[in-house]
Design a protein that fits this description.
The chain is of the alpha+beta class and about 270 residues long. It is built from 7 helices and 17 strands.
Length: about 270
């Protein structure tokens, strides 16, 4: 009897090991998207044509998760479940490529379990090296209106932390199968900061946006090179709050809102 029991136990262990070894896996692409506002340019709520040469963002601790039940970003909790995590810090230029450029591939992770990755998280903090060392965000470009042109470089050194649920858009994302890679997207909405001339002025995105007029007023001979501390001291308190409240809402998953650790749920802004 003992020998038979030992044999059955051994077979069970072998079957379990075989099942673990043959568990289906696939690939997950982690991507970033600054959208057309960044790659193509746009007109701010107050009529400035804004074209970016560079939109740098410093990212770290990117995570993608399979959660059950679906993750509620508004809760402010950290996602839990099967995770793919990238601990290294990277700096991306969201403006790279033309209007038809694909979203930016951050990483392709192999051997991840099949299923839907329906939550993501990431951190933004001042870069320790690279083109924007000491900064979290750097916007470089040209703004023009009524014959006036301003070359601008705007530096932001504030830190942000985003936790987000499933991508919201024309199609669902995050599905990994044995035959096809899934993808998740870190989306950045820079129109929140400057507003959008093509949207009604009484829409929330324009009511809360700072526009570009207050920044243009800080320029000198067509040049504006400014950092966060000078923005705080030179902008009015109202305009500074508008700008930084909306910088907090940059992080999205498509049109899906995220929870930002420093200032809270961004869906109500």
């Amino acid at each position: 009897m003992k020998t038979k029991f030992t044999f059955i136990l051994s077979m069970f262990a072998l079957l379990l090991a075989t099942a673990c070894q043959s568990a289906a896996t696939g690939e997950l692409e982690i991507r970033a998207n600054g959208e057309g506002f960044v790659r193509e340019g746009f007109v701010s709520k107050d009529g400035w044509q804004i074209d970016f040469d560079h939109v740098y963002v410093s990212l770290s601790d990117i995570g993608a998760y399979q959660t059950d039940p679906p993750f509620d970003a508004e809760s402010g909790a950290a996602p839990s479940g099967t995770a793919v995590e990238l601990s290294n810090a990277i700096t991306l230029d969201l403006a790279e490529g033309g209007p038809d450029a694909d979203t930016i591939l951050i990483s392709t992770e192999s051997g991840v379990p099949i299923g839907q990755f329906n939550a993501v998280s990431w951190q933004m903090a001042p870069a320790s090296n690279g083109p924007i060392e000491g900064q979290t965000i750097q916007l470089v470009g040209i703004a023009s209106k009524d014959g006036e042109t301003i070359n601008f470089t705007i530096n932001i050194d504030e830190s942000y932390g985003y936790t987000c649920g499933e991508f919201v858009g024309d199609e669902r994302k995050g599905f990994v199968t044995e035959d096809a890679a899934g993808d998740v997207e870190l989306t950045f909405h820079f129109d929140h900061v400057f507003g959008d001339f093509e949207t009604a002025m009484d829409e929330a995105i324009n009511v809360s946006a700072v526009g570009f007029d207050p920044l243009a007023a800080l320029s000198n001979n067509g040049e504006l090179n400014i950092g966060q501390s000078d923005l705080e001291s030179q902008l009015s308190a109202e305009d500074f709050d508008k700008m930084f409240n909306n910088l907090q809402t940059l992080g999205h998953v498509g049109e899906g809102h995220c929870y930002e650790a420093a200032r809270g749920w961004s869906g109500n802004k």
